[in-house]
Design a protein that fits this description.
There is one protein chain. By secondary structure, this protein is α/β, with parallel strands linked by helices. It has 14 helices and 17 strands. It is about 35% helix and about 25% strand. It is elongated and about 90 Å long. The chain binds adenosine-5'-diphosphate, the ligand Nc1ccn([C@@H]2O[C@H](COP(=O)(O)O)[C@@H](O)[C@H]2O)c(=O)n1 and magnesium ion (MG). Ligand L45E5XJ5 binds next to loops. Keywords: Allosteric enzyme, ATP-binding, Glycosyltransferase, GTP-binding, Kinase, Membrane, Multifunctional enzyme, Nucleotide-binding, Transferase, Transmembrane, Transmembrane helix. Pfam families: PRK, UPRTase.
């Protein structure tokens, strides 16, 4: 490896890309899982197909007319600002009325599954899932026809939201979805909203809205929409007013999308969910103009986050306490057999955060120094005597070649620390070198992953 790729500057430079957020998958693997372990609709990348394009995350949003589907989708899209998201409306796939049908429009049932061209909708979602753009028809609710000469081009994206009253009706369409949401709003509220919307936006008068509602909309809701509610993974009562549900859904999508390819391949890698606070601090510590005081302050804050997350992955035991009011609270007790080991010198910058979180924690040290180019290493170690009985938080904030980390893990294993008891805590890392240590530790927790 060229000398300059060894330096901290190089790592910091490389780590200036996006901040990946990730998910710790349960179970520990010492080799990449085969692609067959995940569901076909959103399978993980395996070592051999890590260059394959990522499949988009498809969300279906259904619910009765005027339940707030479009409003909920808009809110989700707004909150997913980090990702490319597109909305496909089932309404766009309404079949245009023939001249004959148009003459008797009041007899036409727009709420029956046959009113939609489901084959075309299926084609659209299938193409978009495979990364192609699609020319989506434009439907006019006033003329009940499609625009004959123009389309809306919908480009390939990370997330596709498919919204409509009957998107859960056809099993083939349902099967393309990774997540299904049903917006559940009281029927009276929906009717009131529909009257207002259709008179204001869709060129209808109140009588025709009420007539259509009684003749077609309500019966079709009972026959087709409501029975499809059972397919939903998430039901949102009160639609767009339910901020808690929308937040939870957005968090879930973030987590699913945030899995960096490496996290998918190596379930023991966990990248902390990025927030604007975290990004802001990473921005500050990269700024060449930052003062030493601020650099230390913001690095400390970031390190503290990594340490707190690391502690959250330790085993715990159940514990009951009696509260001042005399009731019994069932909680958990921290893991007692714990220690830190810092890789000298940079690892020492994480010690204060660890001490601040774990009162009286023992912290050992490992110094690994390359002696010339002949592969000889000088090693200094000062570790707790009973380290083999402890869970070890291995501290190294900046990782370039991975050599020291690799050596440190080897030493801990030689000292009798089981692999599953080692959690490697890291702030900034150059990804391709991680591979050397992935296979050895239980959990690799990092905050910022550089793409190289
Ligand atoms: N939480 C809400 N409070 C008040 N009005 C709402 C709310 N959610 C939606 N609306 C209004 O109700 C009408 C229908 O909402 P929309 O999101 O278009 O429903 P859908 O897509 O399910 O038909 C729209 O005019 C919208 O502005
Ligand atoms: N030409 C049309 C087409 C559809 N409708 C009604 O639209 C409703 C579906 O749209 P939402 O935004 O309310 O989900 C459906 O209930 C149809 O009755 C229409 O009135 N005219
Ligand atoms: Mg709508």
């Amino acid at each position: 490896m060229p000398e300059e790729t060894n330096s901290i500057d190089y790592v910091m430079e490389k780590a200036s890309g996006p901040h990946f957020s990730g998910l710790r998958l349960d179970g520990m693997l010492s080799s990449p899982p085969s692609s067959s372990t995940a569901s076909p609709s959103h399978r993980s990348a395996s070592a051999s197909d890590s260059n394959a394009p990522k499949q988009p995350f498809v969300i279906g949003v259904s619910g009765g007319t005027a339940s707030g589907k479009t409003t909920v989708c808009d809110m989700i899209i707004q909150q997913l600002h980090d990702h490319r998201v597109v909305l496909v409306n089932q309404d766009s796939f309404y079949r245009g009325l023939t001249a004959e049908e148009s003459k008797r429009v009041h007899e036409y049932n727009f709420d029956h599954p046959d009113a939609f061209d489901t084959e075309q909708l299926l084609d659209c979602v299938q193409k978009m899932r495979s990364g192609h753009s699609y020319q989506v028809p434009i439907y006019d609710f006033k003329s009940h026809r499609r625009c004959s000469d123009s389309f809306r081009q919908v480009n390939a994206s990370d997330v596709i939201i498919l919204e409509g009253i009957l998107v859960f009706h056809d099993q083939r369409v349902r099967n393309l979805m990774n997540m299904k949401i049903f917006v559940d709003t009281d029927a009276d509220v929906r009717l009131a909203r529909r009257i207002r919307r259709d008179t204001v936006e869709r060129g209808r008068d109140i009588n025709s809205v009420l007539e259509q509602y009684a003749k077609f909309v309500k019966p079709a809701f009972d026959d087709f929409v409501l029975p499809s509610k059972k397919y939903a993974d998430v039901i949102i009562p009160r639609g767009g007013d339910n901020h808690v549900a929308i937040d939870l859904i957005v968090q879930h999508i973030h987590t699913k999308l945030g899995q960096h390819d490496l996290c998918k391949i190596y379930p023991n890698v966990h990248v902390i969910q990025s927030t604007f606070q975290i990004r802001g601090m990473h921005t500050l510590i990269r700024d060449k103009e930052i003062s030493k005081h601020d650099f230390v302050f913001y690095s400390d804050r970031l390190i503290r986050l990594v340490v707190e997350h690391g502690l959250g992955h330790l085993p715990f035991t159940e514990k009951q306490v009696v509260t001042p009011t005399g009731s019994v609270y069932t909680g958990v007790d921290f893991c007692k057999k714990l220690c830190g080991v810092s890789i000298v010198r940079s690892g020492e910058s994480m010690e204060n955060a660890l001490r601040a979180c774990c009162k009286g924690i023992k912290i050992g040290k490992l110094l690994i120094h390359r002696d010339g180019d002949n592969g000889k290493q000088l090693i200094y170690e000062k570790l707790p005597k009973d380290i083999s009985e402890r869970h070890v938080l291995l501290l190294d904030p900046v990782l370039a070649t991975g050599n020291s980390a690799n050596q440190a893990i080897e030493i801990l294993i030689q000292k009798g620390v089981p692999e599953s008891h080692i959690i490697f805590l890291n702030l900034i890392s150059v990804s391709c070198y991680l591979l050397m240590i992935f296979l050895k530790v239980n959990l690799y927790l990092l905050q910022d992953l550089a793409r190289v």
